[in-house]
Amino acid sequence: MSVSENLAAVRERIARAARAAGRDPADVRLVAVSKTFPVAAVRQAAAAGQVDFGENRVQEAFGKMDELSGDAGGGAGATDLGVRWHLIGHLQSNKARKAAARFACIQSIDRLEILEAVDRASVASQSRPELLVQVDLAGEVTKFGAKPSAVPAIFDAARRLVAARVVGLMVLPPFLDDPEAARPFFRQLRDLRRELAASGVPDSMLRELSMGMSRDLDVAVSEGATIVRVGTAIFGTRHV
Ligand SMILES: *Cc1c(COP(=O)(O)O)cnc(C)c1O
To answer: Among 48, 63, 73, 99, which one is least packed by beta carbons within 10 Å?
Structure first.
């Protein structure tokens, strides 16, 4: 199967799951996770109409951005192909500056300091990245993400941002073979959004729920995902 055929199949899965849940398929954005794959794969997907791409390492993403745009200086996450880059992996403070300048969306905001560092860097680079707060619902010590109890304080601070904008929540559940096993995590993320809204967080800051991957995107869409992050089902098995 080619990248474009795989993309069509993933879009069909999203559409079917959305319709079954009484949702508009257009309300679910597909982020194609190109980590470990060469820029040729990104070009193939972009040629098939894919706009949003996800990478989990800053340096790897920058390499692809540079190759794609032929512009080593970089822009605000946009390139000649009109691609929008999402950072979906952990962001270290020392990379906040560059990340804020070049990613359209940073989905891995997991602590106050990185929120504030990204905002300062966005002011400096005159960028306006969208940010998602990554929540660690499994309580796994090895996983990144803010503890649910720390999330309200992050949203409080998010109201004071100058350039960057928090637009929602992201979760990466523990690896589970059965897609249904991820459903409780997706529900918890949706419940957390409802609680934050009830506590006065504006809807504009809670627009997105980024949840669901190749294995469980159908379940995530049925639970209200507005962004799904899909790698394997589009580009194939990763060998690194
Ligand atoms: C790799 C990755 C994905 C994509 O996973 P697949 O199972 O290949 O679809 C999604 N989200 C995050 C945070 C990832 O690191």
So the answer is: 73
